[in-house]
Prior knowledge:
The protein is α/β, with parallel strands linked by helices.
Amino acid sequence: MRVRNHQGRDFIDCGAGLWCVNIGYGRAELGEAAAKAMAELGYYHLFSSYSNEPIIRLADRVLALFRERAGAPHLSKVFFGTADRTPTTPISSWCATTTICAASPTRRRSSPDSAPYHGLTAAAGSLTGILSFHKAFDLPLPGVLHTACPHFFRFGQAGEDEDAFTRRMVGELKDMIQREGPETVAAFIAEPIMGTGGAFIPPRGYFEQVQAVLDENDILFIADEVITGFGRTGEWFATGLYNLKPDIVTLAKGITSAYFPLSASVISERMWNVLRDASAEFGPVMHGFTYSGHPVGGAVAMANIDIMERENLVENSAAMGAYFLEQLRQRFADHPYVGDIRGQGLMMAIELVADRKTKRFFDHDKWAHRAIQRKAYDEGVMVRALPYVEAVSFSPPLCITRAEIDEAIARFARGFDAAMPELRAAA
Length: 427
């Protein structure tokens, strides 16, 4: 849970780096696994039907986890990448291949729900719904549509309950699809819980209704589990938590707890069949990276999953997440500048308001929540002020204990108190 700076000062990391150091810092076993893999086969690529043992075993293990722990036996094959957001790069290729083979050459658009973070490459940055990531890069690219953000606390209308909000969000998606033409929409991509956007928990019934709309219109569903995968939500995958039936799942971060850069895209048997059957006419999908399926990454991931299983870290995420959320609510629910406290597993956020009575939000350009992040850091706890709404996120390593939660919240509370003059001025 803890890191120290060059002066030896202690910090409790309630961000797990960037949502990713799931097993915690200082795990020598992962270094040992990497050294062993480097000594045996430091590198080989996956082009031209080559492979290596660690990555073959990892693919089998990931698919088994989806089958046995997430109720997703339809997922069939794994494509490995490197950086945490490279899984979104092959999406355009796969979507295009699937629809071209289905004789729909105009099907080119993709539709992410607004406020997700899917990456910063040209394609992934376009799918990202946070406008600040588009500035100066001439994004999004043509063909990307963004739906309304399904965050009930901030975007629910007066007199609208959560069920009505869900119906409105799904209705707007349905209208967008019909307006554009279902035959032109290739895929819908969503984070099951939006991380960088604000740790937004989906409103009740949202994905159940969205998936029905996608099925009706033969549109692929892509679940971006780069953050939510590997125990972050208290389940192995949010695919199982929300009973999702995705055609593609993107993974990274927790697959190695960030000890080695590795990512993965898992595709369904349906998609695999299309790729396989069309290869005679179109050839193989010409996509890959020099470091795709790196054997050292495969070995590190296997050791990482070993630790997660042996130490019951997914179960700990569920239990400690519930305790953490309860303690946050007990401490801050009545705070004059706190509007919402939410979370699932060890993925939580406090969202600020300038006025609780009127539910008036802070002016975004004042960045009120950054004052809390700075003051909390001064108190020795690392949290993150998110870029889309005035929310402070908590996503500690899954090995956190009750005592560490208590200490982290005490430090955070002192930082919050110290930030009050700045909050009053911003309000």
